[in-house]
């Protein structure tokens, strides 16, 4: 096997490196900058050019090397290349080739092009390691354009009532899509400090984003009245959010597909906006890779793996430590939100 599943993460013995390891290692190839996939403590990091400034912002100074998509390098004889995953800015699938075998590690991915994260690329392989965050048939996403229009209509209605629109979304990935959605309204957009930090890191990568203003103690109620505020989940129900009164709150997450989650968040609205593939996206991708073997990681891995086996595609579940930050934050579960 080109990759083995260890207590530190996905290990390539031929190349002597790990992919998204969750324990400190010597060499780590990173799919994207969410902290359940990119952790502190590795000696050497390899990632996409756009991911590097995000890792620097989150993990501080380390030895980082970055490459572009479809620019192969060799690590101890193993051919390694990165390919767009469409999950967030810089997110990549990792393709490994050695001894006639091709393996692809998806990391997290979505198949609809959001216009800022890079269009997902199907990478043919013998073995595919896929996520399954939303690996149930109930998860079937509406097209992004329709969701963006729904968000804009909600914000416009709030403004007519002189209410501030507070939109909750993860600080890296979701917040940038929300910003893109509301940009045509040409209203001032204020952001939480966690969103601001990621915004600055993305700008430093050379990626253009609409202008935002950081919420500070000096920001006046007059400035905020009728405006748009983007904040992470840790801001829900906090003293920080009360300064925007009167306001309405919306949560953007794939978990909003399940009836009752809007109420559980005590939100006024929920928009089903996910940075992960839905059920059909997962199945379509797996089939398109032509993979003979499929390993299913974090999410509804049991359901997806069982379905694939029933359809004649060899599949097995793999236990990992992924899914502990972004997905939990969006679903409202307790997470460490110190940075937010």
From TrEMBL:
PANTHER family: BLL1145 PROTEIN, CLEAVAGE AND POLYADENYLATION SPECIFICITY FACTOR FAMILY MEMBER
Region annotation Disordered: where it falls in the sequence: 321-340
Record lineage: Bacteria, Pseudomonadati, Bacteroidota, Chitinophagia, Chitinophagales
A GO molecular-function descriptor: ligase activity
Classification via InterPro entries: MBL, RibonucZ/Hydroxyglut_hydro, Xnuc_lig_assoc
Source organism: Filimonas zeae
UniProt name for this protein: DNA ligase-associated DEXH box helicase
Keyword terms: Ligase
Domain of life: Bacteria
């Amino acid at each position: 096997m080109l990759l083995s599943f260890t207590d530190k993460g996905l290990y390539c013995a031929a190349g002597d490196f790990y992919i998204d390891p969750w324990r400190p290692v010597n060499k780590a190839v990173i799919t994207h900058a969410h902290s359940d996939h990119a952790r502190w403590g590795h000696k050497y990091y390899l990632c996409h050019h756009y991911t590097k400034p995000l890792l620097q912002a989150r993990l501080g100074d380390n030895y980082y090397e970055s490459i572009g998509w479809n620019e192969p390098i060799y690590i101890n004889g193993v051919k390694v290349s990165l390919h767009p995953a469409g999950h967030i800015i810089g997110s990549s699938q990792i393709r490994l080739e050695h001894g006639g075998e091709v393996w692809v590690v998806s990391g997290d991915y979505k198949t609809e092009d959001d216009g800022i994260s890079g269009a997902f690329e199907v990478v043919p392989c013998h073995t595919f390691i896929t996520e399954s965050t939303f690996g149930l048939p109930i998860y079937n996403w509406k097209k992004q354009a329709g969701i963006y229009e729904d968000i804009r209509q909600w914000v416009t209605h709030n403004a007519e009532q002189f209410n501030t629109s507070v939109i909750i979304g993860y600080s890296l990935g979701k917040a940038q899509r929300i910003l893109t959605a509301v940009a045509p309204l040409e209203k001032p957009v204020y952001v939480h400090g966690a969103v601001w930090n990621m915004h600055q890191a993305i700008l430093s990568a050379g990626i253009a984003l609409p202008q935002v203003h950081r919420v500070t103690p000096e920001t006046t109620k007059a400035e905020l009245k009728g405006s748009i505020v983007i904040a992470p989940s840790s801001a829900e129900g906090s003293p920080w959010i009360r300064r925007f009164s009167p306001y309405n709150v919306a949560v953007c997450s794939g978990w909003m597909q399940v009836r009752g989650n809007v109420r559980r968040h005590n939100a006024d609205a929920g928009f089903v906006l996910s940075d992960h593939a839905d059920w059909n996206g997962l199945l379509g991708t797996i089939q398109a890779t032509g993979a003979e073997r499929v390993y299913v990681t974090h999410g509804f891995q049991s359901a997806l793996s069982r379905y694939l086996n029933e359809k004649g595609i060899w599949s097995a579940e793999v236990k990992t430590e992924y899914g502990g930050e972004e997905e939990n934050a969006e679903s409202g579960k307790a997470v460490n939100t110190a940075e937010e």
